[in-house]
């Protein structure tokens, strides 16, 4: 697969001249400053006084609901938090709430015919807003907005160990719920995420959780007499408190805090994604660890996830518990009856290594099937995006495109072909050395263009001596002594010479300190013999490892097969790690490619690459 921005084709002369001029300007300006000390201004939360933004009939045809510009949500909001109530459905089914124009195979909430029920949703906003549809029949759907995420001024999120902060019998008169100072919530919190459960209900009705002193005509959850049900609520705090009431009779209301928002610069920021199913399978009373990195587009620097948890095929009554892997807080995410299908939004912290972020799930009794759908994640903003990026000569004229949020950087040392130098290598190296780290990869890595021109080469090796460099003994060249022929021995020396130049004349002061990726693509100049082409890369590998560096291979499976064929186990290439591109795609797709088979027999996929918004992003698989 050709690198969309890093093609090894020769650039036109006019492009090179313009680039040199612009690079000179870039040197004066310096590389963009990365985010080290504080969370960036992206993905911050603004709580709102809860208000209704939609009430209407929805059926099986998607209905787009404009949200930006209503209920206090601005046009530049990236995601919205809405409570979704389905009332009087004509058939059993589920409601699906997604970004406008998308229809992921997920369910926001299940319901029976005639059953009214709610669920909180955090939805990525697309032009036009969000869209609603039912799987069957029709129903009246209400959307009540309680806040939005924006790239600008707002609050960061801090997950906390789930704990109970309120349990009391509540009636139709509002009851104040002081939250600041409870359950790890600081005094300066602006909003909280609390799972709200109602039980011992004496009449049909709904529970309303709002900022203290406010009583808008909205419902957090609807219920029937005698039933127990939960819903996550993100509520703005007024004077450090919220308030709760029921519409009829009385009920016992429990609130379990899972996190809070504050105007701190050290919390986490939110990244919405197209809803992705992270797990579909059984859960029992034994905790099941669920991996999110590598399956659901969640990076290694994530601190928490926003996920809809659907429980179905329940063999007995009980409750579902979703917590960070390795923890077992004594709280319930959702209660259910035997045979019932029901959902609940969860915002839970994640634990594990940077390559393996996880949550865990269990039920209190019997067994059930769990579908866990991730709609976004929170990340420690001081560690950047959790993904790396690679840059080279095509980005010389646009230093503003060198991502300031990259966790690591991979810099090309060549100017498009194997025997040239990237004119802005020094500046791009400085950018990579200031990346945020935290993704299990070295902050600075290098990649080089590769080739095997044979008789098309302007200079071809005549011996085992590198011009102005070392002489290899017969044992150092596995193919013997080069005599100037276009054979394996001289092809090995050709690769060794190109690598020697990469390490000594292109501005790399410490070649033995880095991982060197060999970029092998069909747009270079190659021989028809796969054995000769392998020998060129083997020569490069021999030089980089001789000075203490490590080596990996960048290519696509089709290009690798065409150029290099099947790699024998005796080759030094056999066990090298793979960096695999997927082209234009998503973080989730790139993570899924981590589990793909390497394009050669040995080694493993240690990194994948995808293109997003004109930037080549890199995902660590280790």
Features:
622 residues, 5-stranded antiparallel β-sheet, disordered N terminus, 12% helix, 33 strands, mainly beta
What does this molecule look like?
The protein is mostly beta strands and 622 residues long. The chain contains six helices and 33 strands. The model is unreliable at 1-37 (pLDDT under 50).
- In the predicted model, the low-confidence regions spanning at least 5 consecutive residues are 1-37
The largest pleated sheet is described as: 8 strands, mixed, barrel
Helix content: 10-25%
* Multimeric status of the protein: single chain
Helix tally equals 6
Average pLDDT, rounded to a whole number, is 89
- The helix-and-strand class reads mainly beta
Note the overall shape.
elongated
Rg result: 29 Å
Proportion of strand residues:
35-45%
Quantity of strands, as a count:
33
Q: Looking across the biggest beta sheet, what order are the strands in?
A: 26-27-28-29-30-31-32-33
Distance between the termini: 23 Å
Short description, anyone?
It contains six helices and 33 strands. It has helices at 13-29, 425-433, 488-504, 530-546, 557-564, 587-592; strands at 44-58, 63-65, 77-87, 93-99, 109-111, 117-124, 130-134, 139-150, 156-170, 175-178, 189-199, 205-211, 221-223, 229-236, 241-246, 251-262, 268-283, 288-291, 302-312, 318-324, 334-336, 342-349, 351-353, 356-363, 368-380, 388-391, 409-412, 444-449, 515-519, 550-554, 578-584, 605-612, 615-620.
């Amino acid at each position: 697969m050709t690198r969309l921005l890093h093609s090894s084709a020769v650039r036109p002369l006019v492009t090179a001249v313009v680039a040199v001029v612009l690079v000179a300007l870039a040197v004066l300006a310096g590389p963009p400053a990365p985010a080290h000390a504080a969370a960036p201004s992206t993905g911050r939360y603004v709580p709102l006084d809860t208000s209704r933004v939609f009430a209407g009939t929805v059926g099986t045809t998607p209905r787009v609901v404009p949200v930006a510009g209503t209920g206090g949500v601005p046009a530049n909001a990236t995601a919205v938090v809405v409570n979704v109530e389905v009332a009087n459905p004509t058939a059993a089914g589920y409601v699906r709430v997604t970004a406008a124009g998308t229809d992921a195979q997920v369910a926001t909430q299940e319901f029976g015919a005639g059953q009214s029920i709610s669920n909180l949703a955090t939805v990525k906003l697309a032009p036009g807003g969000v869209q609603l549809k039912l799987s069957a029949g029709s129903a009246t759907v209400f959307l009540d907005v309680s806040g939005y995420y924006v790239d600008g001024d707002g609050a960061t999120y801090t997950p906390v160990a789930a704990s109970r902060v309120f349990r009391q019998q509540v009636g139709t008169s509002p009851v104040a719920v002081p939250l600041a100072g409870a359950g790890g919530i600081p005094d300066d919190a602006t909003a909280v995420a609390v799972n709200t459960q109602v039980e011992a209900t004496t009449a049909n009705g709904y529970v309303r959780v709002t900022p203290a002193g406010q009583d808008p005509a909205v419902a957090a959850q609807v219920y029937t007499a005698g039933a127990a049900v939960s819903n996550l609520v993100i509520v703005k705090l007024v004077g450090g408190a919220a308030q709760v009431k029921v519409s009829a009779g009385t009920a016992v209301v429990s609130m379990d805090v899972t996190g809070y928002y504050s105007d701190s610069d050290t919390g986490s920021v939110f990244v919405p994604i197209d809803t992705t199913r992270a797990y579909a399978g059984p859960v029992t009373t034994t905790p099941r660890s669920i991996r999110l990195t590598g399956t659901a587009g969640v990076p290694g620097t994530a601190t928490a996830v926003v996920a809809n948890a659907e429980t179905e095929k329940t063999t007995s009554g009980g409750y579902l518990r979703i917590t960070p892997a390795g923890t077992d807080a004594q709280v319930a995410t959702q209660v259910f009856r035997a045979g019932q299908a029901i959902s609940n939004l969860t915002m839970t912290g994640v634990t594990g290594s940077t390559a393996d972020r996880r949550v865990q799930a269990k039920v209190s009794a019997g067994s059930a099937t769990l579908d866990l759908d991730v709609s976004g994640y929170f990340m420690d903003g001081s560690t950047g995006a959790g993904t790396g990026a690679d840059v080279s000569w095509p980005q010389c004229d646009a230093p503003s495109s060198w991502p300031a949020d990259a966790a690591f950087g991979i810099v090309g040392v060549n100017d498009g072909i194997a025997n040239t130098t990237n004119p802005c290598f020094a500046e791009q190296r400085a950018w990579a050395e200031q990346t945020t780290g935290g993704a299990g990869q070295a902050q600075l890595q290098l990649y080089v263009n590769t080739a095997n021109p044979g008789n098309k080469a302007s200079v071809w090796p005549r011996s085992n001596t590198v011009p102005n460099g070392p002489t290899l003994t017969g044992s150092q060249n596995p193919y013997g002594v080069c005599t100037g022929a276009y054979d394996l021995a001289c092809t090995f020396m050709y690769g060794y010479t190109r690598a020697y130049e990469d390490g000594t004349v292109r501005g790399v002061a410490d070649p033995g300190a880095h991982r060197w990726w060999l970029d092998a693509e069909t747009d270079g100049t190659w021989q028809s013999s796969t054995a000769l082409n392998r020998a060129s890369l083997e020569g490069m590998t021999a030089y980089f490892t001789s000075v203490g560096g490590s080596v990996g291979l960048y290519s696509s499976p089709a290009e690798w097969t065409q150029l290099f064929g099947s790699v024998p186990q005796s080759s030094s290439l056999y066990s090298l790690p793979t960096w695999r591109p997927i082209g234009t795609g998503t973080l989730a797709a790139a993570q899924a490619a981590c589990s793909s088979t390497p394009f050669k027999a040995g080694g493993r996929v240690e990194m994948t690459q995808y293109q997003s918004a004109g930037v080549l992003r890199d995902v660590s698989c280790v």
